[in-house]
């Protein structure tokens, strides 16, 4: 009986002592356990914040320009972290660089480097803002779940709506990437962009067109081509506009890179 009493007493003491030793993981603990994912989330939130402060210059014009550069730098950091996750150890080999240029994160690292010192233009920040906003949703939901199942219901509903419109957002990003090209050309003629930028940005567009994981750029190019051909085929379309559009379609089609099936 004494042994039985001692065992039950020790068991009860062990239960009462072990209960507080296994607390639910807090937000900080979770982020420390997933450092790279947490760093990605922070960089994306920072990109979103800086993009908003540039678009809505609440702190003044000079601060807004700094936010423009910070948004692109933060986007570049996000791309580097994603490449760290997806690629093997960096090597100075042809195979590694061939694999590098296939990654969407490498494309947007290239994008950020193209425009980080350029004349600030809202359209440039739209793709990095929308990508950061979209890709931050999953980790944000995880953090809300750690707080509690009922935490941040309004924010949860916004995130759910964002995820539900994911395809529309990705199409809008692809559309922005395409129409940024003529905008850059006009900015060159206006003296606000280097003459080399359109040629470098064309290389970015070819990478996006050939992307394996994101087909929206190819889809948008195809849909725009079909739309232009339909407009040109109308009897009411002037001949000179039809000829101009047909030549433009031909030139753009020849510049499109081959895509592996």
Characterise the protein shown here.
This protein is an all-alpha fold. The protein is 76% helix and 0% strand. It has 13 helices and no strands. Helix 3 (35-55) runs antiparallel to helix 4, helix 7 (122-135) packs antiparallel against helix 10 and helix 10 runs antiparallel to helix 11 (197-209). The N and C termini lie far apart (77 Å). The model is unreliable at 1-24 (pLDDT under 50).
Task: Break the fold down into its secondary structure elements and pairings.
Layout: H1 2-18, H2 27-33, H3 35-55, H4 61-86, H5 94-100, H6 104-115, H7 122-135, H8 137-147, H9 153-164, H10 166-189, H11 197-209, H12 216-232, H13 239-255
Global mean pLDDT: 83
End-to-end CA span? 77 Å
| Beta-strand percentage range | under 5%
What is the overall shape? globular
How many β-strand runs? 0
Order of helices and strands: HHHHHHHHHHHHH
Fraction of residues in helices? over 70%
Main β-sheet, in a few words?
none
Any low-confidence stretches, pLDDT <50, length ≥5?
A: 1-24
- Provide the structure class: mainly alpha
**DSSP helical segment count:** 13
Radius of gyration: 25 Å
């Amino acid at each position: 009986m004494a042994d039985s009493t001692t065992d039950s007493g020790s068991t009860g003491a062990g239960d009462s002592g072990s209960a507080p030793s296994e607390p639910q993981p807090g937000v900080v603990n979770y982020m420390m356990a997933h450092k790279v994912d947490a760093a990605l989330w922070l960089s994306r939130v920072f990109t979103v914040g800086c993009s908003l402060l540039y678009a809505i210059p609440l702190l003044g014009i000079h601060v807004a320009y700094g936010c423009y550069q910070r948004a692109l730098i933060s986007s570049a950091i996000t791309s580097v972290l994603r490449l760290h996750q997806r690629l093997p150890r960096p090597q100075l080999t042809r195979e590694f660089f061939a694999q590098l240029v296939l990654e969407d994160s490498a494309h947007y690292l290239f994008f950020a480097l193209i425009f980080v010192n350029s004349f600030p233009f809202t359209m440039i920040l739209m793709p990095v803002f929308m990508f950061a906003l979209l890709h931050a949703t999953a980790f944000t939901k995880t953090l809300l779940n750690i707080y509690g199942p009922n935490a941040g219901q309004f924010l949860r509903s916004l995130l759910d709506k964002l995820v539900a419109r994911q395809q529309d957002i990705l199409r809008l990003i692809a559309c922005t990437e395409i129409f940024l090209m003529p905008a850059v050309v006009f900015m060159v003629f206006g003296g606000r962009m280097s003459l080399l930028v359109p040629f470098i940005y064309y290389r970015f567009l070819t990478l996006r067109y050939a992307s394996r994981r994101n087909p929206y750029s190819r889809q948008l190019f195809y849909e725009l081509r079909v739309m232009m051909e339909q407009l040109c085929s109308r009897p009411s379309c002037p001949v000179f506009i039809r000829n101009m559009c047909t030549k433009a379609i031909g030139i753009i089609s020849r510049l499109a890179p081959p895509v592996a099936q």
